[in-house]
Structures are given as structure tokens and as C-alpha cells.
């Protein structure tokens, strides 16, 4: 967990506690929350958002057709360039139409059974 997320959470908790204490102290009057508490809440939210955005990183993935780790080309966000993005997908051993090709309606069950029996025969041999 990022230190900024912890710090922002502590600032928000402190602002909530201050607001609770302030309202317990001023129950009889109808006044608004002090500006210091509002600023503390805003600062806490900004710190939490910055910590959350800075903790987003691309993870490695395992290839489907091969047992290798595929590292992303960039650390934080995937490239927008379509040729690079499809290159990353193809390096995993799948095609860009994998979701459509693996739907139950489009799978050739007889072919899959044949592949499985061949695989099983190779495993036993």
C-alpha cells in the first residue's frame, strides 16, 4: 500500500474526528463546519487521489501458449499505438479476436475432443 494512501487516509480520519468533535461542541448553534476542516478534507482527498494514481502500474502476464513471463512495454500505461498493443497481445500467444473465437457457440467440440485425446495420448506415452 502506498504511503500517500495511508497519509491521505489519516488526514481524512483526522478531519472526520475534528468535524465530529466540532459538532458535539456546537450542537445548540446552527453554524457551518469551519474552513480548516473543509481544507483538511480537500487536502486528504487530493493526497489519496495522487497516491492512487501513482500506484497504478502495468503488471507482467503469463503467456498462454508458452510458459514465459511477458513484461509490458511501458511501466505505467499501455501504449495507445494499436500496432504495439496488438504486439503485446500477440506475445501472450493469443489473437486480438480471442474473446470471439473462444465463445461456446464458435468452438468446434469435435476438434477440441480430438486435440484432448491426442494430448492425453502424448502424456501417457
From TrEMBL:
The record lists the membrane-crossing segments as: 37-56
> Could you state one GO biological process linked to this protein?
protein folding in endoplasmic reticulum
Q: Where in the cell?
A: Endomembrane system
Spell out the InterPro entries in the cross-references: EMC_subunit (IPR053279), MMgT (IPR018937)
- Keyword check for Transmembrane helix: yes
Q: Does the keyword Transmembrane apply?
A: yes
The membrane-topology field of this record reads: Multi-pass membrane protein
Q: Pfam families this protein is in?
A: MMgT
User: What does UniProt give as GO cellular component?
Assistant: EMC complex
Question: What keywords would UniProt list here?
Answer: Membrane, Signal, Transmembrane, Transmembrane helix
In the UniProt record, the signal sequence range is 1-18
Query: Origin, by domain of life?
Result: Eukaryota
- Give the family per the record: Belongs to the membrane magnesium transporter (TC 1.A.67) family.
Question: Can you name this protein?
Answer: Membrane magnesium transporter
Organism, per UniProt?
Answer: Candidozyma duobushaemuli
